[in-house]
Amino acid sequence: MIEHLRDYRGKSARAIIFDFDGTIGMVRAGWMPLMLGMMMETLLTLSADAESLYLEAEDYVARLTGRDTVEQMNAFADHVRRLGGAPASGEEYKVEFLNRLAGRRTERLEAVRQGVISPDDLLIPGARAFLVQLQQMRLPAYLASGSAHSDISDECRLLGIEEFFTGIYGSAPGILNKSELLRFVIDSGVPADSILTFGDGRTEIELTHRIGGRTVGVASDEPACIEVDQKKRRWLIDAGADCIIPNYLEPGLMSIVTAAGE
């Protein structure tokens, strides 16, 4: 069921922006527990208060989700420093985390290449059908991610969703970040209140909410993606989500795009 938090009736969407991981794709499903586990290995050498350490780390990881991974790692380095430790740099921590994540990513993508699983097994349920509908409506859709641009581009090709996006933007020098993409869309002639953003992280929801756009928080209970994850729901509501969905199978989803209400 779609949870409506604000009255979104008004202008229909003229441009759609999607985050990738956890919003459209599941290639990196489980990344947050993996990241927090890596952080706790260091934090627990500096303090015995495991619960407090975990909650603080979870807070900044969630708050910075959707940005370049180095920002989460910079916050981790600051956490280590405040506890009296001698941290590595954010870039070094990022490399370590991505090395740990790479095995999962490679295994999942190889399973698609070998035909062991279908591309849709690595998409949020209903995502492909929803993208087809948007394409049929001739609505420009943009994909924006804090993950490496080359990786995101390759994954979209492998999963067969590249054709649905007017532009794909990952993290790389010279590539628009999420804030810059919003400005680009507005400068192309789309009013801010006609931009509709789907995301599972605070960053894209906050940025769109701040400029007066409309937002849908995708709070999937990974990896099943059937029910709403209550922690994600709280984070997304705090960030300014207008609606909450667990996936793209929800009846009435297109009414959000057309701003028709229910």
Following the backbone from N to C, one meets helices and strands in this order, namely EEHHHHHEHEHEHEHEH
Percent of sequence in beta strands = 5-15%
CATH superfamily of the largest domain: HAD superfamily/HAD-like
CATH architecture of the largest domain: 3-Layer(aba) Sandwich
- Tell me the Rg in angstroms: 18 Å
Number of structural units classed as domains: 2
User: According to CATH, what is the topology of the largest domain?
Assistant: Rossmann fold
For the termini, the CA-CA separation is: 12 Å
Number of strands: 7
Low-confidence stretches: none
**Given the structure, what is the number of helices?**
10
Helix and strand content put the structural class at alpha/beta
Sheet with most strands: 7 strands, mixed
Overall geometry comes to globular
Arithmetic mean of pLDDT: 94
Strand order of the largest sheet: 1-7-6-5-2-3-4
At the first level of CATH, what is the class of the largest domain? Answer: Alpha Beta
Bin the helical content.
Answer: 40-55%
What is the fold's blueprint, element by element?
Layout: E1 3-4, E2 15-18, H1 31-43, H2 50-63, H3 69-82, H4 90-113, H5 127-136, E3 141-148, H6 149-159, E4 167-171, H7 178-187, E5 195-199, H8 202-210, E6 214-218, H9 230-239, E7 243-245, H10 253-258
Parallel strand pairs: 2-3, 2-5, 3-4, 5-6, 6-7
Antiparallel strand pairs: 1-7
Helix pairs in contact: 1-2, 3-4, 8-9
